[in-house]
Amino acid sequence: MPPLVALTRHGLHLPDADLYLDARDAPGTVFVSHAHADHCTNAARLICTPATAYLHQLRQGCRDAMSVPFDEPVIVGNATVTLRPAGHTLGAAMLIAESVHGRVAYTGDFKLRHNPFSPPVTIPRCDTLVMECTFGEPRYVFPPDEEVLRDLYEFVDDALADDAVPVLLAYALGKGQEILYHLTSRGYDVVLHGAIAAMCQAHVELGYPFPGPGHWGRYRRGEIGARVLITTPGTRKTAMVQSLPRKRICQLTGWALHPGAHNIYRDCDLVLPLSDHAGWNDLVRTAVESGATKVYTVHGHDGLAAHLRSLGIDAEHLADHPNEVDLGDDEPEPPGASGPSQLGLPL
After folding, report:
1. Where do the domains of the chain lie, and which CATH numbers do they carry?
2. Alpha helices in the chain, H assignment, sequence order
3. The whole model's pTM is what?
4. Eight-class DSSP state of 325
5. What is the dihedral of CA 67, 69, 72, 74, to 10 degrees?
6. Distances in Å between the alpha carbon of 306 and those of 126, 157, 312, 341, 346?
7. Strand partners, 251
8. Edge-to-edge strand order for the sheet containing 294-298?
9. CA-CA distance, 89 to 115, in Å (whole number)?
10. Bridging pattern class, strands 65-67 and 74-76
């Protein structure tokens, strides 16, 4: 029987559907799980959700996108393909491909926790599971988002009470919008780095507005006032942030749970473990509850696959493809951290 998942020089490939998975370059059709820059593709044809197609067009363009709504099966090659919510960003999807040879699921980047821009996430049942495991180590058990948000609100309130600007560092797509959603819901007024504002406007155009009573707008030099500034991590050492006479800086990242986080982000006043990825417990739960007899883990650490094998699951870690590089709006390993090397994907 042919394999449900194959390894090629372009990355992972589903032979029955003739689909490549989140490949930056490939000769055929690529499934794009979400519109983070490190998952966008240069391929001539892609399959994704309508929201991801829209965001992909804005960020990188695309020549031919097959937009597939959640939970609407379509025939692709010799397989029936269904996209399910992944909870990672607006439009982020898992892919399930079913053929006469079996059922394979690819999670892409995902989380089981609530995302205001995603339908609830359910764990796919499958024979073979390909699972992202960026935080595939036991140290990464994320606290409930409610606890993280409580600490965030306290940070913002304390900064404003001290006539300082609360500066929140979040990626342009995904976390920036989640944070804005929660802040405006609570009544804070917010100004945004231009890249984040552009993605927020795209959310509005796609029918996902941000609730009040708080207001939001694009950052204008010298026009912050008693408002929260959300900007990208790469700007924290630029004049935009450093010229503020009084400020408090908070980094929002799952790597807050890394043992060296406070040294890595030592120019920040606070580091909070808010992530748009699944943590250790949810990764293990996903593998177990999927019922898969074969699990491949990608990204992250190979320790998760070893743990799954100790539970009796046939699991294997696949090293990252050399074309997969950090382009600044997902959660790469923090600078200065020691972790898995970037090895080439075996052919």
Report:
1. 6-140+276-318 (3.60.15.10), 145-272 (3.40.50.10710)
2. 50-59, 145-161, 175-186, 194-205, 239-242, 261-264, 280-290, 303-310
3. 0.92
4. -
5. 10
6. 20, 44, 10, 17, 19
7. 169, 271
8. 74-76, 79-85, 93-99, 102-106, 128-132, 294-298, 314-318
9. 8
10. unpaired
Residue linked to tokens 């405006």: 184
**In whole angstroms, what is the distance from residue 257 CA to residue 280 CA?**
12
* DSSP label at residue 176: H
Contact 36, 43 (CB under 8 A): no
Would you give per-residue pLDDT tens digits along the chain (347 residues)? 678 999 999 999 999 999 999 999 999 999 999 999 989 999 989 999 999 999 999 998 877 899 999 999 999 999 999 999 999 999 999 999 999 999 999 999 999 999 999 999 999 999 999 999 999 999 999 999 999 999 999 999 999 999 999 999 999 999 999 999 999 999 999 999 999 999 999 999 999 999 999 999 999 988 899 999 999 999 988 999 999 999 999 999 999 999 989 889 999 999 999 999 999 999 999 999 999 999 999 998 899 999 999 999 999 999 754 333 333 466 666 644 443 322 222 22
- Taking the alpha carbons of 142, 143, 149, 152 in that order, is the dihedral positive or negative? negative
Alpha-carbon span 127 to 81, nearest angstrom: 15
